[in-house]
Amino acid sequence: MRDQNTGDITTLRSFNRLYTNWLGLLDVHLDGSSFTLSEARVLYELAHRHEPTAAEIARTLNMDRAQMSRTLKRFAHRGFLETHSNPTHGRQQLLILTPTGRAAAKDLDARTQAAVGALLQKLPETRRQRLIAAATMMAQALERKVEAPAVKLRGLKPGDLGIITARQAILYAEEYGWNQDYEALVARILADFHEHLDPTRDAAWIAEIGGEIAGSIFLVHTDEPGLGKLRLLYVEPVARGAGTGTLLVRTCIEHAQNLGYERLTLWTNSVLDAARSIYERAGFVLIGEEPHHSFGQDLIGQTWSLAL
Known about the structure:
Number of domains: 2
Shape: elongated
Number of helices: 10
Radius of gyration: 28 Å
């Protein structure tokens, strides 16, 4: 855990250095204006709030009150700001931008829009899309008041089979040390699923959170009438604990019932504790297990069954 935490800290610090340099946040004046970064943030809050107090802005920006006081004094000296007493709280001063202050805020906003727009234009479209998607995800992760996006299920679309193969191979290598034999197995399973797909007996679901793939599951027919297989359940680490795996398994079971299946089976390994817990809660019963050496590891394979 300590090594992982150290790695996370290093990654975040590296990103912080990269984006502050890229956006020019270390420049003495922001976007060619006369304002420092902290002054620009205060000016933005003043322009987008209705008669705030200094304390409100300080709390929003996590800014020291002494620094806030110095910034407001500079704004008042430049004719950007005026104050008046709060009629409901005599000791509070309400802050109001003057026409000069609003003009300065408008000019700064235009400069920032132009500067960021110029940076984005330098990026190829694919990198630009990835940057915006990542920025959206980071904002959602850091914003305490925003509820986690709901898990949504959809069917397969082009590219999903390759993504699922890659993500499962990467995750099981990182978490369990499995080698590329597992990647080859997943690729074969998914290739067979695509080649022999029967919409009256087979189905697949992709879980998404905030538009990003968060997991998947497959319902596959067998040669035995009334028997189907649940295959390749996986959930991305960021989606674990949100009920994603349970939703995928429940959806697969309900669809199998609707198609008239009498029984579902699945094969897994004993080390996959989280998945096994989901199967048990869904009513699956362990009917057999056997040691084997696969994917570069000594494992215990398990077969589970559910009567529908």
